[in-house]
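Sample entry (174 residues):
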Amino acid sequence: MSLLFYISSIVAILATIMVITRHQPIHALLYLVVSFMAISMIFLSLGAPFSAVLEVIVYAGAIIVLFIFVVMMLNLDKETALQEKKWLQPKVWIGPSILALVLLIEMILLLLEPPSEKMLVTVVTPRQVALSLYGEYIIAVELGGFLLMTGIVGAAHIGKHTKRNLHRFLQNNH
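Predicted structure, serialized as tokens:
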């Protein structure tokens, strides 16, 4: 169990470093998905399967789809379409694919391993998670929702503007 934990941790750290250092937003999002999956594997190796599933559904699923939607809204010109064709080259997706393959092999090994007496699994029901989130942490959950909504509205507003306004001293008056 500890070896799988360390492998997941290394994959999460590498993927997160790649998220920070990528120049293209789509490349960063691919590595962010791998990072979230690695964190999910960390939860699974520690005996928290419900937290692992929540990590995949909420972060690797919903949040990444939201980020990709915003990136798609902001890229509206023909040059971007040509650039996206370049992004589909194997050199772009081979890194995230290798890291995801490591996580898949690790998950298979973890699921095939017999349960250990050292690992005490505490069962957390969805009801307990809901009571925790919407009980004492309701303000944080609501603020997170407002923050996501503000980001979407801001991205939509920026995506609509095609005209560039320059100050009168910056314009060429020939």
